[in-house]
Design goal:
sequence-specific DNA binding; Arc Repressor Mutant, subunit A; three-stranded antiparallel sheet; 18% strand; six-stranded antiparallel sheet; DNA-binding; Jelly Rolls; alpha+beta; HTH_AraC-typ_CS; 290 residues; 2 domains; AraC family transcriptional regulator
């Protein structure tokens, strides 16, 4: 799961840059860089990875990522098959680290923004009204130019700093231990798992992708991701199961097998371990919120 170090100097010629993405699927690899990044997913579904956190994403997902925090958005398998009508769309805003920390924070009244930037090293998932307001600004900013675009960006930073509904994503003890040279090997492993977790995954095959023995690969994975490889696979599978449980026409047993588990016993055990609920309890909780 090693991310790639990305140099954004070619992107951030100015203090910030807004990029709109429309593609059959997101093509970014698991990577990190030295600047701040705000990602708004407009359309598509899949798995989002921020540091040691793996979870589902969908349209409306908004995350603020700090410097050197590994991140990636991997679409669900149907997007890679380029099924008709499926598109991956997002708005990505890059903020140059030096500009934010040396210029913007020097402005009067920037205390809340400073706290936001400190928290961004763990990744922040935005929710509620603040997310809606920021999304609206970003969608309309694409039509702005010059000073109006700069004003929009400062409004986004203000809304971010004032947000009260958000979630910190990585564990408080998470540390990025990756370096640039290891990126390609582990990224191939990561992509393999996310495309094949619904089937049986053999440790020997994954270790071969990383060009390691199974034992060496397990140690390597645990050292750099701070979790066991088997834990990671089950984490991905349970996240997928949570999404499938939203579909009322799918039985729990079908959700189990379509998520990659070979038995209901294991499925129920790991579902309870990761969510604190049984699959049926989880589904009832969803229904009660509707």
């Amino acid at each position: 799961m090693k991310p790639q170090l990305v140099n954004l100097d070619y992107v951030l010629l100015d203090s910030f840059k807004i990029k709109e993405i429309t593609a059959p699927y997101f093509t970014n690899s698991h990577h990190f860089h030295n600047d701040y990044e705000l990602v708004l997913v407009l359309e598509s579904t899949g798995k989002r990875v921020i540091g040691d956190r793996v979870e589902n994403f969908k349209g409306g997902d908004m995350v603020f990522v700090g410097p050197n925090l590994p991140h990636a958005w991997f679409n669900d398998n149907e997007y890679y098959k380029q099924k008709e009508g499926l598109l991956a769309r997002s708005i990505v805003t890059y903020f140059k680290k030096e500009w934010l920390e040396n210029c913007v924070l020097a402005l009067p009244g920037a205390e809340k923004l400073k706290k936001l930037l400190v928290n961004a090293v763990r990744g922040i998932k935005l929710e509620g009204k603040a997310r809606e307001r920021i999304a609206s600004i970003l969608i309309n900013t694409g039509q702005s130019n010059g000073l109006k675009k700069s004003i929009d960006i400062f409004t986004v930073l203000y809304e971010l700093s004032e947000a009260r509904e958000y979630e910190m994503l990585t564990g408080i003890s998470y540390v990025n231990s990756y370096n640039e040279n290891e990126a390609r090997r582990i990224n191939e492993v990561y992509e393999y798992v996310l495309k094949n977790f619904t089937t049986q995954i053999k440790l020997e095959e994954v270790a071969a992708i990383a060009n390691m023995s199974p034992n060496a690969f397990c140690r390597y994975f645990k050292t750099h991701t701070q979790k066991n490889f088997s834990y990671f696979i089950n984490e991905v599978r349970i996240g997928h199961a949570c999404k499938l449980l939203l579909k009322k026409d799918l039985s729990v047993s079908r959700v189990c097998f379509e998520s990659g588990f070979q038995s209901m016993t294991n499925f129920n055990k790991f579902f309870k371990r990761f969510t604190g609920k049984s699959p049926n309890e989880y589904r009832k909780g969803i229904v009660s919120l509707e």
